[in-house]
Give the backbone structure.
Amino acid sequence: MYDGPVNPMKVIVAWGAFALFHSVTVSEPYERWARRVMGEDRFRAYHRLLFTLYSAAATAVVLLYVRSLPDVPLYRIDGWVRFLFHAVQILGAGLLLWTPWDLKEFVGLRQWERHRNGDGDGEAPGRNERLFTGKGYDVVRHPLYLGCSLLLAFHPVQTQNSAATAAAVIAYFYLGTFLEERRLIRKFGEEYQAYQRRVPRFLPFPHPATRSSR
């Protein structure tokens, strides 16, 4: 939409509200509360799927809200620079494809299927009990976040609202790595801390301490 005054801050606030909601629902206090309410077996079988559903619903609400706001073009890159932008996007997509992840496990369908079929407690034995550091995870510690960020940041056509969306989402990706890594340190301890010293967090540019450790 292009009618009315444009206010990208509304976009940032909307994504900020989503970030707060998402951060709460992945927090350990919320997880402990959900385990008490649902019970351990049902939590392991259904919680990931429910989390995916209400996260998708919250994302859809924000996207619809942003789409309803007045918007104007910000820039359109053409010529050879456009090909450079698309090349960076291809690198981001390649990083996503090179990073091993199980879509059905990620959304919670595999946990539900195992529970329905009576295969254990809804979690693959040992699946989340080891730290994987190969492929994309040997480039940066959060390759999925980086891949998505490259796709967003290097889109050659942006409006004010789409640029505000990209900035807010990328900022949340980066800030979210700190919360995520606190959980991973508690889970994997020194193994993860050694991984932190070896592999950069978000951008594939090791700092001097990382290079010297290698």
